[in-house]
Design brief:
alpha/beta, 275 residues, eight-stranded mixed sheet, single chain
Length: 275
Amino acid sequence: MKKTIYILIFLVSLFSAKAAQVDTIQVYSASMKKNIKTCVMLPDSYKKSSEKFPVVYLLHGYSGNYGSWAKDFKELKRQVDLYNFIVIGVDGNYSSWYFDSPIDPTFKYETYVTAELVPYIDKNYKTISSREGRAISGLSMGGHGALYLSIKHQDIFGAAGSMSGGVDFRPFPDNWDIKKRLGTINEFPENWNKNTVVNMLDLLPNNSLKLIIDCGVDDFFMNVNRDLHAKMLAKKIDHDYIERPGEHNLKYWENALKYQLLFFHDFFNESVKTK
């Protein structure tokens, strides 16, 4: 009888447990003169704790938006509670590629994320407001964006990841509106060369970033990820690199995100401890 009661108590507590809180906020971008929606996921412990929390910024892929993470990744709320950090679903328009466009002044998403969104989150939430408490990752276009922003802003982010990232978009000159952000590759080759991640490795001389890169072997970005991996090995840039069976789809990213969040959890534990 007692055993039955204990089982019932366990089941009640399991199914009545609170989950991460998901809010949609608007953050004003002075550089683009508009409000931009943002998804904020807070662990259940957030309201009850006086401590500060690390933050993971997640960047969606082409045609996605700020809400894609909370809507499509069914395990993410549980993972937020498990690892006890804040997750921010960033909106990068449907095709910004997360840099400041050199030809379109209405697209300044590098400035937005690094100079407007991060300070807003630190001001309005209980965050560890240093690179030791910040990580950034994304999928596809967002995988490129996460590496791009973290490499250029190592004072802001201490760890970064890419899932199926378009880490070299030059082989795809007519896809995903990239030429709307950079001009055509024939007219503006310098824009393409200096804004693609594979050409930015000279900015990582001291292994200052903790990096994880993940791509499926049947993904159309597989070759550019392998090329990035080979160049990082040649330059002796530390990173975790994963390739496994999978395509450019949600099923692959749901699995990849588990590895990335664990990687960031370990980074936060180590970096905050040793700071």
